[in-house]
């Protein structure tokens, strides 16, 4: 269980770190693709937070709908960003 918790927490930290770096990059260079990617990773971080809450902290509460919604939103933001940038 400790290894499982460590993996989930590292995934959460990695996605938060990626979002932070991408937001900083967007602030420096103001490229829209960096913004779209940063928003995607922020939503993935929220998704990973729901995973940690669902599996480790609140095992009796079903957070699967929230997890699925945030992962869908992250993918939708990324696809929208790619479509917007190719036009």
Automatic annotation (TrEMBL):
Native organism: Alsobacter soli
Pfam families (UniProt xref): DUF5985 (PF19447)
Keyword list, A-Z: Membrane, Transmembrane, Transmembrane helix
Transmembrane segments: 6-26, 33-57
Name of the protein in its database record: Uncharacterized protein
Domain of life per record: Bacteria
């Amino acid at each position: 269980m400790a290894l499982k918790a460590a993996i989930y927490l590292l995934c959460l930290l990695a996605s938060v770190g990626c979002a932070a770096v991408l937001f900083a990059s967007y602030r420096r260079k103001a490229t829209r693709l960096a913004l779209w990617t940063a928003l995607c990773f922020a939503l993935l971080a929220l998704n990973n937070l729901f995973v940690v809450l669902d599996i480790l902290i609140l095992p009796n509460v079903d957070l699967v709908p929230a997890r699925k919604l945030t992962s869908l939103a992250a993918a939708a933001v990324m696809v929208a960003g790619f479509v917007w940038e190719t036009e």
